[in-house]
C-alpha cells in the first residue's frame, strides 16, 4: 500500500480537510493531493467526486476557493483534488510559461521526450490516485464522479469519455472543449503528444464524441464574460459535437460571469447536487 505523508488536517463543516503527499510510481516523483471527507464518512463509505483544476492551479486551489465543502458535507460527498502536473522534473523550461509544463499537465500521458518520463497525469488519476482513494479512504468505488474547470474541464470530459467504467457522473465549468483547435491545446499537445494532430484526437472531447464515445449525462456551466470564451474554450463546438452524436448535454450560459473561482463558487453547489443525484 502506498505510504501517505499527511501534510495537514483541518476540521471543516463536521468533516476533515486533508492534504497529502506520496512517492508516485506512475509519475516517478512525489505528488500532492487533497481529500475532503464529509461527516458521513465516519460511519460508511461515501460517493467520491474528483475535481480537476485548471492552468496554474494546485491541489489546494479548489479546496480553498470554491467553497464546496459546505455542500459536500450536506450531501455526503468526498472531494478529491490533485496537483495539475508533476513538479521539479528537471526538464529545462518546465516553469517558463504558465500555460505549458508545470501547472499545465493537461491530464494526459505524454508520449514525447522529455515529457513522457513524468508527465503521466492520465494514468496517475485513473490508476494510482484512484487506488489510493479506494484503499485508504472510506470511498465507494462504484460511485465515483469527475468534474473540473477549464483545462480541468477538458480533463474531466476526456477521462469520463475514455473511462466510462471508472467515472459514473461528469460535469464541467468553462471547459476547454476542443483543445486540438485552440492555442492552449495546440501548444501543449504538440509538445506532449508530437506534431501529428491525428495523435491528439484521443484527448479532444469533440473528437472523442465523433469517434463514438459517450457518457450518460453532461452538465456544463459557462460564463458569458469569460475572458477565454472565444479564444480557448469553444463551447459551441461541444454543443455541435453533442448534437451530432446524440449525446445528452445541459449547457448553461450565465450573463456577467467570468472564468474565475467567483464563477465556480456560485454554481458549485448545483454541480454537487447534480453528481449526488447521478451517483445515487
Ligand atoms: N496566469 C494567467 C491566468 C491563469 C488562469 O486564469 N488560470 C485559471 C485556469 S485557466 C484554464 O485552465 C485558474 O483556475 N486560475 C486559478 C485561480 O485561482 O483563479 C494569466 O495571467 O492570465
Notes on the protein architecture:
With 280 residues, this protein is α/β, with parallel strands linked by helices. The chain has one domain (5-279): Alpha/Beta hydrolase fold, catalytic domain (Rossmann fold), CATH 3.40.50.1820. The protein has nine helices and nine strands. The protein has helices at residues 61-65, 69-75, 121-136, 151-162, 183-192, 205-210, 229-233, 235-245, 261-279; strands at residues 5-12, 15-23, 30-37, 46-52, 78-82, 139-149, 169-173, 219-223, 250-254. It is globular. The mean pLDDT is 98. The structure holds ligand LAXINWYW. Ligand LAXINWYW binds next to helix 1.
Bound small molecules, which ones? the ligand N[C@@H](CCC(=O)N[C@@H](CSC=O)C(=O)NCC(=O)O)C(=O)O
Mean pLDDT: 98
Terminal Cα separation, in Å?
A: 29 Å
* Known CATH architecture: 3-Layer(aba) Sandwich
- So what's the overall shape? globular
Q: What profile does the largest beta sheet have? A: 9 strands, mixed
**Largest sheet strand order:** 1-2-3-5-4-6-7-8-9
Radius of gyration: 17 Å
The string of secondary-structure elements, in order, is EEEEHHEHEHEHHEHHEH
Assigned CATH class: Alpha Beta
What is the CATH third-level topology name? Rossmann fold
Uncertain spans: none
Number of domains: 1
Strand content: 15-25%
Structural class, from helix and strand content? Answer: alpha/beta
CATH superfamily: Alpha/Beta hydrolase fold, catalytic domain
Approximate helicity band: 25-40%
Amino acid at each position: 500500500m502506498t505510504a501517505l505523508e499527511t501534510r495537514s488536517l483541518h476540521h471543516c463543516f463536521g468533516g476533515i480537510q486533508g492534504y497529502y503527499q506520496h512517492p508516485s510510481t506512475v509519475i516517478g516523483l512525489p505528488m500532492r493531493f487533497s481529500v475532503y471527507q464529509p461527516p458521513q464518512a465516519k460511519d460508511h463509505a461515501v460517493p467520491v467526486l474528483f475535481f480537476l483544476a485548471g492552468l496554474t492551479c494546485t491541489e489546494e486551489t479548489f479546496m480553498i476557493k470554491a467553497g464546496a465543502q459546505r455542500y459536500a458535507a450536506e450531501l455526503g460527498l468526498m472531494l478529491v483534488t490533485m496537483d495539475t502536473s508533476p513538479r521539479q522534473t528537471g526538464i529545462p523550461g518546465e516553469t517558463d510559461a504558465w500555460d505549458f509544463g508545470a501547472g499545465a499537465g493537461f491530464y494526459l500521458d505524454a508520449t514525447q521526450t522529455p515529457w513522457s518520463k513524468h508527465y503521466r497525469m492520465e494514468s496517475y488519476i485513473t490508476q494510482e490516485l484512484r487506488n489510493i482513494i479506494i484503499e485508504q479512504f472510506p470511498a465507494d468505488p462504484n460511485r465515483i464522479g469527475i468534474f473540473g474547470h477549464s483545462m480541468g474541464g477538458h480533463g474531466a470530459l476526456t477521462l469520463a469519455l475514455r473511462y466510462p467504467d471508472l467515472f459514473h457522473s461528469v460535469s464541467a465549468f468553462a471547459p476547454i472543449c476542443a483543445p486540438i483547435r485552440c492555442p492552449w491545446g495546440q501548444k501543449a499537445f504538440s509538445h506532449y503528444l508530437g506534431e501529428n494532430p491525428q495523435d491528439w484526437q484521443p484527448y479532444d472531447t469533440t473528437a472523442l464524441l465523433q469517434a463514438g464515445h459517450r457518457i450518460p449525462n453532461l452538465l456544463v456551466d459557462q460564463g458569458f464574460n469569460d475572458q477565454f470564451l472565444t479564444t480557448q474554450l469553444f463551447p459551441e463546438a461541444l454543443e455541435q459535437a453533442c448534437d451530432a452524436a446524440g449525446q445528452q448535454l445541459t449547457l448553461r450560459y450565465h450573463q456577467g460571469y467570468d472564468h474565475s473561482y467567483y464563477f465556480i463558487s456560485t454554481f458549485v453547489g448545483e454541480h454537487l447536487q447534480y453528481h449526488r443525484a447521478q451517483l445515487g
